[in-house]
Amino acid sequence: MQRLAAAVIWAAACGVAAELPRATVAKIDEIAVKSLAESGAPSVSIALVEGGKIAYENAYGKARLDPPVDAKAEMRYPIGSVSKQFLAGAMVLLVQDGKLSLDDTVSKYLPDLTRASEITIRQLLSHTSGYQDYYPQDYVAPFMQKPVTAESILDQWARKPLDFDPGTRWQYSNTNYVAAGRIVEKVTGGPFFAFLWRRILQPLGMTSAIDLSTQTPGPGDAAGYTRFALGPPRPATPEGKGWLYAAGELAMTAHDLALWDISLMAHKLLKPASLEAMTTPVRLRNGTVEHFDQVFIACHSDQALNLLSDPSRQETDILGAISYQANEALLHTDARLMPRRRLAWAAWNYHLPIEQYDRVTVTYNMNILQSLQAPAQFLLTLNRNADVDPAKVLGSYVYHHPVYTAAAVAAQKRRRELNGSRRTYYCGAYWSYGFHEDGVKSALASLDDFRRDQAHEQPHLQRVG
Ligand SMILES: Cc1cc2nc3c(=O)[nH]c(=O)nc-3n(C[C@H](O)[C@H](O)[C@H](O)COP(=O)(O)OP(=O)(O)OC[C@H]3O[C@@H](n4cnc5c(N)ncnc54)[C@H](O)[C@@H]3O)c2cc1C
């Protein structure tokens, strides 16, 4: 705590605070430091806008942990999906130029995408198209560490059946933004980032911005970290080149991001009608706007916690106490991993190696488990990659399982305390033993909690139901 306080005094001395009273600056610094301590994030960079001008900017904590480097306001941070508004901005600029309409169908530019003649650019930008998301998980899967092209993403996710009929639902999907990025390229005849640079970033003076899809941040930029439950920050695995493309590709300083916000407020680049188009909720085909009163989050406890931008103390304590551990799984046909005596073969075969492993190792015999009549033995071995003959490996995967410590078991008992407390309900196998049926049981339990809360809040629903 003392070390952090010292960092802030240093940082405050370097901050730009031309227009703010000292007490305000002190309060801002205090909030920033508190948020770092609460979230466990290594650093934060902020820019404050007042009266259409940047009134204060500062950075706190460590931008790099090993070796430690202090965060500085001039450092770039990846802005992830916040980049999406720049693609939307590029699109409305093209509308202003008379080059396209938001109601153009995708088929005008990318005719071979699924049901392209029924989907509009507006539906792409508002996540109501039905194209399946290529990046729903909150970690970088092994296949995403290899480079990819936008066309290859579209081949795999936008040339297959839709998740729902266009305009009938809302579902966050990065695939929409890849398709939209390609449309900008078709219309402008050049790379998407080149258009962004020419028409938005350079004119607004946002010259720190780089395209992470093709460029790598330098040692003078903040490094990305990730955190599993309450564990320490670990260096984040970067996506392979091309995956972020037009859906999360930008890194920039907080200063430059603030310049963009100022430009929107002052209508510097975008006309009022364009800004309105960007910020008006899109209606579904049945005329409704989707909004959500209650949320069910059905993923792992650590993923659920990561999804919350403002976790409560309870959410942090309970979800954070149930951590997950990565396990390596190999699908193979190397029967040496089965017991020597065939009579001892079972669906689940635990290994008790002489040399201790730091995690459980087991081989599932899929032929027995799933009654497969196959010419080979299909085996799935967890956490024993080195002992499997590489020539017999069919696939390699990483799975995450809950870790049951005393704190995790205590946290499991607090499910009801959490469920519904902030209109949010949590499902997942982590609430009991981590098996399939535990996932189903947790969903039923959450529905029960929901029903009870509704009956309490809205007795008429109970009567109607
Ligand atoms: C190799 C292996 C073998 C197993 N064998 C058995 C067995 O024989 N019998 C048995 O009962 N159980 C078995 N299990 C356990 C079983 O698979 C799990 O208990 C069960 O799948 C867990 O269900 P869940 O809903 O908690 O999590 P998951 O099934 O992991 O579902 C979580 C979902 O959340 C999604 N998600 C994560 N983040 C986000 C986000 N930000 N937005 C949207 N979606 C997101 C993920 O993509 C995922 O689809 C096995 C597990 C493994 C790995």
Give me the CATH architecture of the largest domain, please.
3-Layer(aba) Sandwich
Major β-sheet annotation? 5 strands, antiparallel
The count of strands amounts to 15
Q: How many helix segments?
A: 16
Q: What's the multimeric state?
A: single chain
Per CATH, the superfamily of the largest domain is DD-peptidase/beta-lactamase superfamily
From the N-terminal CA to the C-terminal CA, the straight-line distance is: 53 Å
* CATH uppermost class of the largest domain: Alpha Beta
Shape descriptor reads: globular
Please state how the strands of the largest beta sheet are arranged side by side.
Answer: 11-12-13-10-14
Description:
The chain is an alpha+beta fold and 465 residues long. The protein contains 16 helices and 15 strands. The chain has helices spanning 2-14, 22-39, 84-96, 121-125, 150-157, 174-188, 192-201, 254-265, 272-279, 301-307, 313-321, 366-369, 406-412, 415-418, 436-457, 459-464, and strands at 43-50, 53-65, 68-70, 77-78, 210-211, 225-226, 234-235, 250-252, 295-298, 324-332, 348-350, 362-365, 379-382, 393-402, 424-427. A five-stranded antiparallel beta sheet has the order 11-12-13-10-14. The chain has a three-stranded antiparallel beta sheet with strand order 1-2-3. Helix 3 (84-96) crosses helix 7. The radius of gyration is 26 Å and the shape is globular. The N and C termini lie far apart (53 Å). Bound molecules: flavin-adenine dinucleotide (FAD). The site of flavin-adenine dinucleotide has 19 residues, from helix 10 and helix 15.
